[in-house]
Specification:
This protein is an alpha/beta fold and 343 residues long. It is built from twelve helices and five strands.
Length: 343
Amino acid sequence: MSLVDELKSAVTPRAALLVVGVFALQLLFIASYVGALHHPKPTDVPFGVVAPQQVSTVLMERLEKLPGDPLDPRTVTDAAEARDQIMNRDIDGALIVDPRGRTDTLLVASGGGTVLSSALEKTFTQVEAANRRTIRTVDVAPASPQDFDGLSAFYLVVGWCVGGYICAAILAISAGSRPANPHRAIIRLGALALYAILGGLGGAIIVGPILGALPGSVAALWGLGALVVFAVGAATLALQSVFGIVGIGLAILLIVVAGNPSAGGAFPLPMLPPFWKAIGPALPPGAGTWAARSIAYFKGNDMTASMLVLSAWAVVGSAVTLAMSALKRQPAAEQTAGAPSGA
């Protein structure tokens, strides 16, 4: 057998295409992570300003003209309203100007990301110094001392996502990418749901009672974790039912390559480039990270959009999986109906 024949025998066209796909996935992984995270800087950060009218107008103009557009400032009536808006996650910080003195108060929320709160403090230290004023920083929603850089929520959600697509991949590899019939599709989705419930509970217990990394309701984190795992798993099952084993690669592309760097984990959303900032909230890692931080540090506020995103992934993934399992058995049924009676 010639070398060419040996090569053709050793590397089938299907295997070659899969290797090319893996190579493309590798390059996309590098481009996505480095592109999103290599040069983080605050851009259009929602920010409140509490100041007397005559001061507020000048200050707002100055903040809007800062190089690089780091802030999206808006006036807030008073300090209490500023705190409420931060806790409701409408803004990421606020400056409270003291007209009677030379020290102003900067409100931040490190629970939403310590990198962002540090960036705001650095920015306003420079702004105030230029005006011969100083600031004191008050952390309205401080990150847990056991939650380094506010990353625990992100890593928790990443773990849930990994569990979701690996569980779905194992279900497919063990019995075929596409369910043979709707009953088997239901069984797979049921097995995934059970896994999601257990996976959500395990993650919530580890980051809460065991490690003390995240405060907040264990029950709420459990529910969120179950939804994240099931949403990612159902989406993976759906992609496998449509594209076969290639669907696993597509799931990794969506969840790992696109979803993780855009999740606002290492750097909160206002510090990401526009593309990743735009797609992050629509993907499970981003929606899950936002919701986990809301549970841990913001009294569960502003979770509706994230929960709707995760629910949509779960529902659409389940529907596509069931639909494809029904479509697959149709040709066999037609063949039986058209077969001769003596067959």
